[in-house]
Amino acid sequence: MKILTWQARNNKNITLVKLSSKTGISKSTLNNIENGRVFPTILQLESIAKALDVKISDLYDSEYK
Asked: What is the pLDDT of residue 2?
C-alpha cells in the first residue's frame, strides 16, 4: 500500500505546517508519513482527509482499493 498524503497536500497547496495546525498531528509525524517511514493510523488518515477536504481513499493506493 502506498500513502498519498504528499500528493493530496501538494494538490491543495498546503504546507506541512498548515496541515499540522489543521490536524493536530506534528509536522515531523506528517513528514514521516509522507516519506514512508511510518504508516498513519485510520484516525490520522481521517484527520488529514478532513483537513484537505478529500476522501480517506484518496490518501492511499492499493491493489485492494
From this structure: 94
